[in-house]
């Protein structure tokens, strides 16, 4: 319990969750020793279809979903534990991450039984990669101003519009797109709908956007008279905003918000060794205290979701804090590397590479998946200011 | 929260509401203890709550005591409450007879202390001693070769040089050419310091939470440019950032009070250090000039945060200690250590 309307409960990890943790660690150890999981020189979620297939073979994609759709019916906390183990070890999970976290749960919550039967088992098998078609060139934080439209045609919908920052669109089979399907006087939020687009369909053009970290993860997706069938509609026509709000809440509090650059910290600890200056230990200790606090918070939110609560404000706080923590980690590692002279003259090449990549990547932490200014607006509303 | 804990919390909140007003808080700056508060706390067994039941206490846990002290911190309750609660527990654990009434408690790491078996402490000097003139005894916890030594002295045997902390509460320097001591050896100094630091952390958290809540309320009351200042995004963003600090430090402090492990405790005090700094800056920024006056209640929490932030181990001390628990690990052993440092799950 805490101030104002913020709420927190101590997380309780079940014995099953701890057993799963050991299974995931054993899997990672096996992957490492077999050479299939080399220590990375970059941060972020890697993309590796074969790794996704091996994770799927363990039953770890769609872990919480009903068995009839390929899931294991395990708890949200077990999924949390599995994910933190995979992320801390920098296992490349990018090929299934969005489908497991967002697309699958949206279909479970709002989709038809037919849609669930078609998509979910394939996601759980590691065969499907999903993209999220929300942002547009003129609609970033102000998502409701989006211009992409779908008009009703016989037997389906015809979509026209332009989506941007679409992660993995060039590697994915499907994109769930948010488009305007009707105009409702006086409400920008009403009249939006979610449609599933087959990215191989005629009229879809995918162009790469190379990030300043030198990577091709993002794309621009042009949709020109793309026709999708009636059963591509998720949930109710016009209810897209509410569905997307629920979807965004799933993605806020997960461990990827504070563990995507964890490899940088563990590499620093490894290279630093036991003998460090007091000032370096003070910086490192502060960073670890924020890490442990975030983990405690992230577990609490997972625990509350497991109990059927909707800790939406708390989840926004995890994302605001987690993304700032990741930027702070880059600053701290850079300062300790400098103070302790760890990477000059060819020493610690992997730490050096990680630090360069993390610095380049860091500005994105507080932007992707919703900027921190928007998150703080949500928090402000949650504590009664708006 | 367990039924017992809810009962403790409600009891103490009621006592605080009934007995502690602004005048009583202010009087502490003139070295006057809020006696009706302490009479009620003693009468309800709160001061002995950590003492085992077979020794006349309630046998409550550190987690229970943390809930009480969080409420006391919210209320800006002056006086040696933590010191008495923990001090009496240490006396009970060491097999020393409990003292009547209130205790002061001080940890010393590098002072000369009498050898084992000595019953006199010669050329004694201790610093930062809370409320020495309001208590019957001063309990010193000293680091020794064998762990921790407890040294119990009569408060009136000391020569007192008055010193105040940032909140204006007494933190005196005590000296004595010679003073009788009852002493005992008790466990691990660092573990005892850790318990004290978590309990102080709970008070810090309470003071932060009160300041946060008051600032949110104030932003809804205060109008400028024709509307409540809570409607301005600049104000919303500041308070949202403080909400982050409040929730993060609450989670780790609660976990530390339950888990009592070295890393959680150190992490809690490190995290609370940042949260306290942010709370002081942001709550005062939101309050504008109003919050800077002695008249307005915000300063009673702000100044306690200043006084408590580095108590029972400074923020930097706990950061070095925490990093020391992880320094020397490898890229593969670091994460398991991080995850093991969390609160172990209950079945």
TrEMBL record, chain A:
<keyword id="KW-0274">FAD</keyword>
<dbReference type="Pfam" id="PF00441">
    <property type="entry name" value="Acyl-CoA_dh_1"/>
</dbReference>
<dbReference type="GO" id="GO:0005886">
    <property type="term" value="C:plasma membrane"/>
</dbReference>
<dbReference type="InterPro" id="IPR006089">
    <property type="entry name" value="Acyl-CoA_DH_CS"/>
</dbReference>
<dbReference type="InterPro" id="IPR009075">
    <property type="entry name" value="AcylCo_DH/oxidase_C"/>
</dbReference>
<protein>
    <recommendedName>
        <fullName>Acyl-CoA dehydrogenase</fullName>
    </recommendedName>
</protein>
<dbReference type="GO" id="GO:0003995">
    <property type="term" value="F:acyl-CoA dehydrogenase activity"/>
</dbReference>
<comment type="similarity">
    <text>Belongs to the acyl-CoA dehydrogenase family.</text>
</comment>
<dbReference type="InterPro" id="IPR013786">
    <property type="entry name" value="AcylCoA_DH/ox_N"/>
</dbReference>
<dbReference type="Pfam" id="PF02770">
    <property type="entry name" value="Acyl-CoA_dh_M"/>
</dbReference>
<feature type="domain" description="Acyl-CoA dehydrogenase/oxidase C-terminal">
    <location>
        <begin position="282"/>
        <end position="383"/>
    </location>
</feature>
<dbReference type="InterPro" id="IPR036250">
    <property type="entry name" value="AcylCo_DH-like_C"/>
</dbReference>
<dbReference type="InterPro" id="IPR052161">
    <property type="entry name" value="Mycobact_Acyl-CoA_DH"/>
</dbReference>
<feature type="domain" description="Acyl-CoA dehydrogenase/oxidase N-terminal">
    <location>
        <begin position="14"/>
        <end position="127"/>
    </location>
</feature>
<keyword id="KW-0285">Flavoprotein</keyword>
<dbReference type="InterPro" id="IPR037069">
    <property type="entry name" value="AcylCoA_DH/ox_N_sf"/>
</dbReference>
<dbReference type="Pfam" id="PF02771">
    <property type="entry name" value="Acyl-CoA_dh_N"/>
</dbReference>
<dbReference type="InterPro" id="IPR009100">
    <property type="entry name" value="AcylCoA_DH/oxidase_NM_dom_sf"/>
</dbReference>
<feature type="domain" description="Acyl-CoA oxidase/dehydrogenase middle">
    <location>
        <begin position="132"/>
        <end position="226"/>
    </location>
</feature>
<keyword id="KW-0560">Oxidoreductase</keyword>
<dbReference type="GO" id="GO:0050660">
    <property type="term" value="F:flavin adenine dinucleotide binding"/>
</dbReference>
<dbReference type="InterPro" id="IPR046373">
    <property type="entry name" value="Acyl-CoA_Oxase/DH_mid-dom_sf"/>
</dbReference>
Automatic annotation (TrEMBL), chain B:
<dbReference type="Pfam" id="PF02771">
    <property type="entry name" value="Acyl-CoA_dh_N"/>
</dbReference>
<dbReference type="InterPro" id="IPR036250">
    <property type="entry name" value="AcylCo_DH-like_C"/>
</dbReference>
<dbReference type="Pfam" id="PF00441">
    <property type="entry name" value="Acyl-CoA_dh_1"/>
</dbReference>
<protein>
    <submittedName>
        <fullName>Acyl-CoA dehydrogenase</fullName>
    </submittedName>
</protein>
<dbReference type="InterPro" id="IPR009075">
    <property type="entry name" value="AcylCo_DH/oxidase_C"/>
</dbReference>
<dbReference type="InterPro" id="IPR037069">
    <property type="entry name" value="AcylCoA_DH/ox_N_sf"/>
</dbReference>
<keyword id="KW-0285">Flavoprotein</keyword>
<feature type="domain" description="Acyl-CoA dehydrogenase/oxidase N-terminal">
    <location>
        <begin position="3"/>
        <end position="92"/>
    </location>
</feature>
<dbReference type="InterPro" id="IPR013786">
    <property type="entry name" value="AcylCoA_DH/ox_N"/>
</dbReference>
<keyword id="KW-0560">Oxidoreductase</keyword>
<feature type="domain" description="Acyl-CoA dehydrogenase/oxidase C-terminal">
    <location>
        <begin position="199"/>
        <end position="305"/>
    </location>
</feature>
<keyword id="KW-0274">FAD</keyword>
<dbReference type="GO" id="GO:0003995">
    <property type="term" value="F:acyl-CoA dehydrogenase activity"/>
</dbReference>
<comment type="similarity">
    <text>Belongs to the acyl-CoA dehydrogenase family.</text>
</comment>
<dbReference type="GO" id="GO:0050660">
    <property type="term" value="F:flavin adenine dinucleotide binding"/>
</dbReference>
<dbReference type="InterPro" id="IPR009100">
    <property type="entry name" value="AcylCoA_DH/oxidase_NM_dom_sf"/>
</dbReference>
């Amino acid at each position: 319990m805490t101030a104002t309307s913020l709420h927190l409960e101590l997380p309780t990890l079940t014995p099953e969750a701890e057993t799963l943790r050991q299974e995931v660690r054993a899997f990672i150890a096996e992957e490492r020793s077999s050479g299939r999981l080399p220590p990375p020189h970059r941060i972020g979620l890697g993309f590796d279809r074969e790794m996704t297939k091996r994770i799927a073979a363990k039953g770890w994609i769609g872990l919480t979903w009903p068995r009839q759709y390929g899931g294991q019916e395990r708890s949200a906390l077990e999924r949390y534990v599995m994910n933190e183990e995979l992320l801390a070890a920098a296992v490349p999970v990018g090929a299934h991450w969005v489908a497991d976290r967002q697309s699958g749960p949206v279909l479970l919550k709002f989709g038809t039984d037919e849609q669930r039967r078609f998509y979910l088992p394939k996601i759980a098998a590691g065969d499907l990669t999903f993209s999220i078609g929300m942002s547009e060139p003129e609609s970033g934080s102000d998502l409701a101003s989006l211009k992409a439209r779908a008009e009703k045609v016989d037997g389906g919908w015809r979509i026209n519009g332009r989506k941007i920052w679409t992660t993995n669109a060039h590697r994915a089979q499907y994109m769930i797109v948010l488009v305007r399907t009707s105009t409702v006087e006086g409400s920008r939020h009403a009249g939006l709908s979610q449609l599933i687009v087959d990215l191989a369909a005629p009229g879809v053009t995918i162009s790469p956007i190379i990030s300043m970290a030198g990577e091709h993860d993002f794309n621009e997706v042009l949709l020109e008279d793309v026709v999708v069938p009636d059963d591509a509609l998720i949930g109710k026509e016009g209810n897209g905003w509410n569905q997307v709000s629920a979807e965004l809440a799933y993605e806020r509090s997960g461990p990827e918000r504070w563990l995507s650059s964890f490899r940088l910290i563990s590499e620093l600890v490894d290279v630093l060794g036991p003998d460090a200056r007091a000032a370096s230990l003070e910086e490192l200790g502060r960073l670890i205290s924020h890490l442990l606090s975030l983990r405690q918070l992230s577990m609490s939110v997972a625990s509350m979701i497991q109990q059927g609560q909707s800790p939406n404000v708390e989840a926004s706080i995890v994302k605001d804090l987690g993304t700032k923590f990741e930027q702070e980690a880059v600053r701290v590692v850079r300062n300790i590397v400098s103070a302790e002279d760890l990477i000059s003259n060819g020493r610690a090449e992997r730490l050096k590479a990680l630090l360069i990549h993390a610095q380049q990547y860091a500005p994105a932490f507080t932007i992707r998946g919703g900027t921190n200014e928007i998150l703080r607006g949500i928090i402000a509303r949650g504590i009664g200011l708006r | 929260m367990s039924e017992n804990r809810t009962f403790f919390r409600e009891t103490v909140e009621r006592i605080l509401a009934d007995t502690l007003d602004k005048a009583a808080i202010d009087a502490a700056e003139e070295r006057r203890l809020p006696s009706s508060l302490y009479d009620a706390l003693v009468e309800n067994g709160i001061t002995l709550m950590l003492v085992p039941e077979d020794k006349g206490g309630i046998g409550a846990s550190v987690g229970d005591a943390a809930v009480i002290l969080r409420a006391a911190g919210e209320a800006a309750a002056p006086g040696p409450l933590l010191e008495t609660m923990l001090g009496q527990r240490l006396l009970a654990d060491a097999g020393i007879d409990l003292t009547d009434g209130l205790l002061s408690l001080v940890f010393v790491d590098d002072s000369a202390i009498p050898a084992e078996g000595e019953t006199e402490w010669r050329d004694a000097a201790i610093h930062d001693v809370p409320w020495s003139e309001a208590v019957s005894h001063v309990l010193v916890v000293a680091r020794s070769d064998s762990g921790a030594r407890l040294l119990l002295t009569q408060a009136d045997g000391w020569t007192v040089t008055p010193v105040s902390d940032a909140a204006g509460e007494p933190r005196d320097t005590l000296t004595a050419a010679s003073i009788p001591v009852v002493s005992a050896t008790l466990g691990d100094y660092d573990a005892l310091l850790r318990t004290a630091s978590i309990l102080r952390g709970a008070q810090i958290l309470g003071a932060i939470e009160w300041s946060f809540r008051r600032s949110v309320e104030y932003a809804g009351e205060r109008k400028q440019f024709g509307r409540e200042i809570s409607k301005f995004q600049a104000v919303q963003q500041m308070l949202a950032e403080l909400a982050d600090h409040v929730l993060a430090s609450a989670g780790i402090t609660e976990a530390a009070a339950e888990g009592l492990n070295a890393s959680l405790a150190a992490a809690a005090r490190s995290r609370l250090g940042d949260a306290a700094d942010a709370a002081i800056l942001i709550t005062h920024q939101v309050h504008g000039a109003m919050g800077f006056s002695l008249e307005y209640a915000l300063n009673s929490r702000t100044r306690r945060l200043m006084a408590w932030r580095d108590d029972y181990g400074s923020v930097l001390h706990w950061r070095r200690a925490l990093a020391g628990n992880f320094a020397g690990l490898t890229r593969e052993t670091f994460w398991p250590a991080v995850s093991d440092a969390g609160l172990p799950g209950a079945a």
